[in-house]
Design goal:
The structure is a homodimer of 102-residue chains. With 102 residues, the first copy, chain A, is of the alpha+beta class. Chain A has helices at 12-20, 23-34, 41-46, 52-64, 83-94; strands spanning 38-40, 68-73, 76-81. The longest helix of chain A is centred in the middle third of the chain and has 13 residues, at 52-64. The first copy, chain A, binds a DNA duplex (30 and 30 nucleotides) through helix 3 and helix 4.
Chain lengths: 102, 102
DNA sequence: ACAATACTAAGCGAATTCGCTTAATATTCG
DNA sequence: CGAATATTAAGCGAATTCGCTTAGTATTGT
């Protein structure tokens, strides 16, 4: 089966923070977000100077971290932002603030 | 000068997310936080199994990311949480949420 | 002054990351 | 079917990370 390998991360936060630690990957998220929440792999790759195969890898990291979901559509692949995952991290960070309300 | 080398990071987010990507470093932050916001290097190192020299390095990473500040007090060194830095990141993540209010 | 305490610094090896390149796969169009 | 399009897979080398260990420095107590 063509199911993508998705080794279960013991610590979800680890994957998410590591994914967010790279400028290109944050740029991917911001770009998809301002594009309405979803873009094809090709559109995403087009915003970068570096080889698009490199972007493919970044997309897989983001997907493995649960920050993107992806769906095949014909010969294109559509990536979508997973807001809830980002909110999970934001809420973790909120614990350190006095103004924690959630 | 004994001033600690603090190379200016072009991208502050990079340093912060990378710092948060390691479970031990998150544990350091949580531990200091629940201890009232500050602890000595020795107290922090004591919560880990691994060599305390390893923790020293983690502390420097957290400091370089601006998540901790540090101050010498006699022969001890006191580390303090820098809440504003964590809030910076939380706010960045908030941009992706519909319920952004800040 | 000397020993003890509390650290930081520096260097090593295994593992991981990030760009690259070459190759493979899947879908659509003529 | 065969070419074109869209994308993933796999493997390479340089750089970084993370644990370790050994060594060095600064402050305190006697």
């Amino acid at each position: 089966m063509a199911q993508r390998e998705q080794r279960p991360r013991v610590d979800a936060y680890e994957a998410v923070f590591a994914a967010l630690a790279h400028a290109s990957r944050r740029k991917v998220l911001v770009t998809i977000f301002f594009n309405g929440g979803s873009m094809t792999a090709g559109e995403i790759a087009a915003i970068f100077e570096h080889a698009w195969q490199t972007t493919t890898r970044h997309l897989r990291v983001l997907e493995a971290a649960g920050l993107l979901t992806q769906e095949r559509r014909g010969r294109e692949r559509i990536y979508r932002i997973e807001r809830r995952r980002l909110e999970l991290v934001r809420d973790w960070l909120s614990h350190f603030s006095k103004t924690t309300k959630h």
